[in-house]
Please model this.
Amino acid sequence: MLRLEAVSKRFGRDWVLRDVSLSLGRGEVLALLGPNGSGKTTLLRLMAGLLKPTRGRVVREGRALFLANPPAFHRHLTAKEHLLYDLAFHGGRGDWRGALARYGLPEDLPLAAFSSGMKKRLALARLELLSPDLWLLDEPETALDQEGRELLLRALDGARARGGVVFATHDRALAEAAADRVLWLGAA
Model:
């Protein structure tokens, strides 16, 4: 489902990643752990195709969606409007009402009134609704309360059943609870 072959990334003169090789099969969850500046987000962006490697190759099967931290939304739109737009843009027919209900989110409140945790829940609802083959998540636990973390763990299990997941985190307990494998990235 995902393969990295000796992937390296440089910004200017600085190497962020050097010779990263890995593979992720269907049904697997991989956690990326490491300190700030170790290249976790850069690696996710390479996997998503948002960045091109300086050297090496990224091979992806199926559709991948990247969840940035923090997720980006239009503050004047409602959760309903965001999900309907996403479905129209991606050609889906999912149950947007059910997705909002599962994540405990109101339909018609503008996102300007959402807390950071509510925005993270909406981002997870969006991923679940769009059902990509590969979920690429940058610190998905940030801003989530205990109930939100439980929703995240259920969402990761669902994503595993449909494809695969790679997520970056600083939370070793989350990595151990949710991932089949953990990749440690050291500081550059």
Q: What stands out?
A: Residues 146-162 form the longest helix (17 residues). The two ends are 28 Å apart (CA to CA). The chain has one domain: 2-75+117-123+130-184.
